[in-house]
Design brief:
This protein is an alpha/beta fold and about 280 residues long. The chain is built from nine helices and 15 strands. The mean pLDDT is about 90.
């Protein structure tokens, strides 16, 4: 990978996104940690990185809205995906739970450990951080604080693990995606991500879903997000099986454009195998 542009990721070192990037691109790649998910998109869009890795969905907490919104609003597309098991640790300089008054972490991690925190640290303030690894750095300088992060982040930043596997759902996993310019080549086992805005008409969503059904396309995800450019308008965000170069998908795109105010292709890429 010598001479290749770096891979941007939600950093710093020790985040789960860092681990996902390493699994996707290997130890020989050059990596550039970014402070925010939006920063990863900006680094790739400016050409400072060849591609980026961000979390987009968690099995228990749902969408990572910053990544979804950046995809909908920007020009980059998805090129690959990876599903990674997520085991959260509580790390702290405190020797026990009693002195802990604050818990730092990324909002997704706080959400994934919500019930555990209520049972064991009910009086502690939950403090959002830009990443799990950044949370460890904050907890390192705060004797009455802890962070929710990976064991790797604990080791990198020198903060002991106080409790392991504190996530509320044992089989917790996050889906990470590679962002870049242009679709990945068709493999025959692909996934496509799409955004669309419906007309304000009765039955509009039903007519769109009938298009996918008529073309034999299996939807794997469907949700709506507020349109940040128009108050009280919503953008539907969907994943489905198939590549945009597949004939049924190409026909579906053509038909969708006749039924929707906006249709935006957000990438076709190899479908990652489900773990576990």
């Amino acid at each position: 990978m010598s001479g290749a542009p770096p891979v941007a990721y939600l950093g710093p070192e020790g985040t789960f996104t860092h681990a996902a990037a390493r699994e996707l691109f290997g130890a020989a790649a050059t990596y550039a940690g970014q402070v925010t998910i939006e920063g990863v998109f900006d680094a790739v869009a400016r050409g400072d990185a060849g591609c980026g890795v961000v979390p987009i969905e968690n099995s228990s907490e749902g969408s990572v809205t910053q990544a979804v919104d950046a995809l909908i609003d920007g020009a980059l597309v998805l090129r690959a995906e990876l599903e990674l098991p997520i085991a959260h640790c509580l790390v702290s300089r405190a020797a026990e739970l009693a002195p802990i008054e604050r818990v730092y972490s990324h909002p997704q991690a706080l959400g994934q450990c919500r019930a555990w925190l209520f049972r064991h640290l009910e009086r502690a303030a939950l403090v959002p951080s830009v990443s799990t690894a950044a949370a460890v750095r904050e907890a390192k300088s705060d004797e009455r604080a802890a962070a929710i992060a990976s064991r790797l982040a604990s080791e990198i930043h020198g903060v002991p693990v106080l409790r392991e596997r504190i996530q509320d759902v044992a089989e917790n996993a996050t889906r990470f995606v590679v962002i870049g310019a242009g679709d990945a080549p068709r493999t025959g086992a692909d996934k496509t991500t799409l955004a669309f805005i419906l007309r304000h008409e009765r039955g509009a969503l039903l007519r769109v879903l009938e298009i996918f059904d008529a073309e034999g396309i299996n939807l794997t995800r469907l949700e709506s997000r507020p349109n940040r450019r128009e108050a009280w308008e919503y953008v539907f965000f969907t994943d489905f099986e198939g590549h945009r170069d597949d004939a049924p998908v190409a026909r579906a795109f053509d038909r969708l454009r006749t039924k929707c105010v906006m249709v935006k292709h957000l990438g076709s890429y190899p479908r990652a195998p489900r773990r576990g």
